[in-house]
Amino acid sequence: MSMVVSAPLSNQIQGPFIDTRRIYEIRERPSRMYSWTAFVTAQLLGELPLNIIGSSVYFLIWYWLVGFPSSRAGFSYLMLGIAYPMYYTTFAQWVAAMSPNPEIAAQLFGFFFGFVITL
User: Fold this and answer.
1) Which of 39, 43, 83, 95 is most buried per CB count within 10 Å?
2) How many CA atoms lie within 13 A of 114 on its CB side?
3) How far is residue 8's CA from residue 33's CA, in Å, rounded to a whole number?
4) What is the pLDDT along the chain (119 residues), one digit of tens a residue?
5) How much is the pTM?
6) Residue 28 vs residues 23, 24, 38, 82: alpha-carbon distances, Å
7) Residue 32 DSSP one-character state
8) d(C-alpha 2, C-alpha 41), whole Å
9) Closest Cα to residue 115, out of 89, 81, 91, 79?
């Protein structure tokens, strides 16, 4: 279920990323106020609290209602609540960084994400 939800969430991330990238390319890069590394770091750190809050709510509703044992809850939360949301967020932003518009980013993300998951 987590993999099904991650694809639409990644597509929602790509649109604002491309919009702010356009602003960076038009205004900030020529003025040399900050670098591309600072821009990408700010984008990733801005998504981190939203990832943790959203995935924590998802995990709390999903894990114990299904009836999984509490002894493995910590590792499961680390993987499904922290690591996997950071993976698909950074992967979506990576695809958006190399795409000219959100439509192509969505197509490329679907292709790359499906290819990576099958490996």
Assistant:
1) 95
2) 6
3) 33
4) 677 788 888 888 899 999 999 999 998 888 888 888 999 999 999 988 988 898 899 888 888 888 888 888 999 899 888 898 898 899 999 999 999 998 899 888 888 887 766 65
5) 0.82
6) 7, 5, 11, 31
7) T
8) 25
9) 91
Residue 8 has which token pair? 């639409």
d(CA 36, CA 38): 5
One-letter amino acid identity for 54?
Answer: G
d(CA 91, CA 100): 16
Q: Count the Cβ atoms, other than its own, within 10 Å of residue 63.
A: 18
C-beta separation of 13 from 93 below 8 A: yes
Q: Using the 8-state DSSP alphabet, how is residue 71 labeled?
A: G
With beta carbons less than 8 A apart as the criterion, state whether 63 and 6 touch.
Answer: no
Map tokens 């279920």 to a residue.
1
d(Cα 113, Cα 105) in Å, to the nearest integer?
11
* CB of 54 closer than 8 Å to CB of 84: no
Instruction: Let me know: does 3 contact 117? Beta carbons within 8 Å.
Output: yes
- 72 DSSP assignment: G
